[in-house]
Records
---
Amino acid sequence: MFSKKKDLLFYLIFFAFLLFLMTPYGLGTKAKLTQGLTYVTSKLFPPKINDQDERVVLSSYNVAFEGINNAEDINLASLKGKIVFINHWATWCSPCRAEMPSLNRLYADYKDKVTFVFLTTDSKKDVEKYYTNKGFDFPTYSLKSHIPQQISSNTIPATFILDKEGKVSLEEYGPEDWNSDKVRATLDELLAE
């Protein structure tokens, strides 16, 4: 009898929690829970740089980005010779929101060494509102042209780091702790190549 009551209580709490996550208050809670989970998984399974011979060449570098926040319009071809950090995200995406604080810390330290491209399909208004509320000011773009399959994603967040030759040296799907020592060492390694 006790076991059935305990099981029933567990399921009631579990479903109440799920319902809470679907309320307007749930988005921030989901982001915080995801942030904690991301921190743990990043420690266990940090992003790994691809070996030189495993890096993928893009089918085209003629990719136009329209600057919508803290950014001028650019073309990916003009960024060859630089390390490029591309992050696909959206303001409504809880996992994206979860990784933003770590991205903010990484961006603060590497913005003069690495070119950051935050890609979104959100409107300029939505991005500015989100950034204002959170105190972020990332260089954010929308696509003006087709993006090569090698750096395209149907899921967000998705992050690609291109080496100085423009090859995909790292690709990561899902939230990550981008401010980790491992990621910083990876960027430093790419910068030294």
Note: The radius of gyration is 19 Å.
---
Amino acid sequence: MFFDPERNSMEVTEVGAVTSQLPPQEVALRQNPSLPSLCHPAIQWFMSQTSGVTAVLVATADGFEIASVLHQSLSAEKMAAMTSSILALGEAVLAEAELSDCQNVVIESSKGLVVMLAIGDPRNELLLSVIADRNAMLGQVLWAARRCCEQIRQSVLAIATH
């Protein structure tokens, strides 16, 4: 990883991955050591207030985990990458339909549901992914997920302004 002053961006190269260009403020946010600890109280509140929620993940828009409470069978890295991709696809579908501002994507199955939301932080870099069992009520999950996103957004705003 290195900073390229001519392009004012951070170059990140991972083995087996495509090189991506990240603006310095996004790299700074992702590398902020207090960010996971700022997200965990909101995640814990969400899980305690919402019946049926089994996993919650906060990720960056480019698919990297920030904080999570997941059961052992789930990969945080895979969930973060899929959340990023699915929300980007939702945004593309809405753009094609001449709608905009993808607020969430809901995937339902006979065993439960997954809800993915953009947190709406100052630079729109963070995403929330929620997994719930079949006993969860979609309306309650969405309401609590939006409150969780707002709590995280306020925490990120607090560190972004300092």
Note: Residues 1-22 have pLDDT under 50 and may be disordered.
---
Amino acid sequence: MNDRNTSKEEIRKAISAAEKVLIGIGGEWKLLEDGRDVRSRSLKDEAQRAVREAYECLSRLVEDKDYYIVTTLTDGAIYDADFDPARIVAPCGNIHWRQCSRACTKDIWEEGEVPSDVCPHCGAPLTGNTLEAETYIEEGYLPGGKIISNGRPKRLTGSW
């Protein structure tokens, strides 16, 4: 058996024996370049087969475990995988979540929820709710910060 297979087997055994599993997802899991804007890419795309298969394998490994996932990725792919969205935190944001570019409100919307992509409060353009936003609204990822519906984040409301 080569070192890679040995490592895989060690990981499987460790996860199998664990009561709780904390998973960190970073850049090696990001959606692959395919010539389109990242907001147009999805795990369903054929170009993303390797990433999709990796997420599927990880999901099978932890399906019967008490797990929690922390992702630094902002591509939103983790929410298209077969994980419980309530067990995922994305502290760097998500390109599919939209926020006011002026941060006039802490409201965050799911992509397409505000069809004009203009803040309904002040009229400024909406931007991705990610660390790359000049006015990143961090509260979007905090516990209680988002309402999950059909496995997708929904509009955030309330005072912070």
Note: Residues 20-90 form one domain.
---
Amino acid sequence: MMMKAIQTIGIRGRILLVEDDRLQAKALAAILEDAGFEVVSVPDAGKAFQVVEPPGPDLILSDYRLSEGVSGLTMIRMLRKLLGRVVPAILMTGDTQAATAQDAAREGCAIVQKPYLPWDLIDVINRHLPTVPEPRSASLSAGAGTCGRTVEGGIRSADQASGCFQDLKKGRAG
């Protein structure tokens, strides 16, 4: 079988990877890093809210079915609201229901069907990343971060971080 080469050119963008399968996350992060992306990998929506700080990643890559009863799509919606901008996002899923694709399309999210080939995923990522990553000081941190709420273009204090995730778990994403 012929393998397609994955071109690397420095840091090509910052990706927040949300995948609850530990082995899958580790393999995917390695592939993305080898392709030149900066990757912060977290296992669930709660951790995503802990590591994302404005202005956020260049792209969110998330499994559709996450642990804790929160869908990747709901988490993406909440992260976008938190950041006050529409961050490009891709959902990875084995779900073939038309409703899932329609929901993702309404939110402007691409879908990559599992199983997928690494270079196909890289192609989708390249099509959805901004051409030039935005300059930023600290948008993702490997440790704990803050989670505020976007209010008329501003961010409230970090003391509301738990409320952000609690709303998410209770389904108050809108």
Note: Strands lie at 14-18, 38-42, 59-63, 89-93, 110-113, 150-151, 154-155.
